[in-house]
Structures are given as structure tokens and as C-alpha cells.
Amino acid sequence: MKLEEELKQLRFKDEYQKAMLNIIFTGSWLEVLTNHTLKKYDLSSQQYNVLRILRGSKPQPLNLLDIQERMMDKMSNATRLVEKLRLKSLLTRKQCDSNRRKVEIEITEKGLVLLNELDPIIEANHYTMAKKITKEEAALLSNLLDKLRD
Fold first, then answer.
1. Domains and CATH numbers, the chain
2. In whole angstroms, what is the distance from residue 106 CA to residue 83 CA?
3. Can you list the positions of beta strands (E) in the chain?
4. Rounded to an integer, what distance in angstroms lies between the CA atom of residue 59 and that of residue 63?
């Protein structure tokens, strides 16, 4: 559906305004789609992001700063997210032996099992996109979004 129909707005100031609103609206739409899936697993998209970051760094543990730097949502409270995931036994936090001020964070086996279960479900959302745009269009879209942030 076109943005004009979704927002019930016939015209925009210019194509730049329309593009910006379209990016925000579509990002929100994709997040709702992902959150709908994650809700069944009692996870937020930010918690899911932390788990994926930790899986990607395995076997190397990370500290809070490392996690924050890699998060997609830079405004997330990484301390709170890590604690919630620790309480669910999806990650561990322990003080570094060589530096007592440093806390090392690692994904647990339970966290890995959960991600392995979620991977095909989340990937199915990608197929929703694949039905609507080609691989070449996806690459072009990704490049344009990268260019916008430069």
C-alpha cells in the first residue's frame, strides 16, 4: 500500500519529506512484524539484538560498552537488557579475573538454543520481503540507506 494511503495524506512537502516519512513508517512496520514473533518468546527486539551480538562474538565475551557500540538501537539501556536476559538464563555476567572492574558477558547454551529456534522464524520475515522486491532491489535499497547515513 502506498504511503499516502497508509497515512491518509494526499501530498507531502516534497519527495525528501515523503522518503523520510516512508523510511520511518516502514521501519516501524518491520519492527512490529519482528516484535510480534519475539513476543511469543518473551523477548524484546533489543534483547534479541543483544543475544545475536553475543552469539556473533562467541567464544569471545563482551563487556557492556562493546554491546552498546554494536546495538542497532543506540538509545537502549544495555545494563537493563543484560540483566533481564541474565534472569532468563540466556547469558552470564562475570567479573574478569585480570581486571576486577571489567564484567564479561557471554551467551549461554540456553540462549544459543533459543536463537537457533528463532532463526528460521525470523528468516521467514525476510521471505516476505523477497516476495515483494528482487535481490537487486534489496541491494539498491540497502546501498541507498547506507548513502543516506554517510
1. 1-40 (no CATH), 43-141 (1.10.10.10)
2. 12
3. 91-95, 103-107
4. 13
- Show the DSSP H helices in the chain as ranges: 3-7, 15-39, 45-57, 64-70, 78-87, 109-130, 135-149
CA angle 90, 93, 95 (to 5 degrees): 165
Bond into 59 cis (ω within 30): yes
105 DSSP β-pair partners? 62, 93
What does each C-alpha distance from 131 to 33, 45, 60, 125, 144 come to in angstroms?
Answer: 16, 23, 37, 10, 20
Q: What is the DSSP letter of 75?
A: T
Q: Are the beta carbons of 91 and 54 closer than 8 angstroms?
A: yes
pLDDT digits (tens, 9 = 90+) for 91-128: 999 887 777 778 899 999 999 999 999 999 988 877 77
pTM equals 0.85
Amino acid in position 72: M
141, 129 Cβ separation under 8 angstroms: no
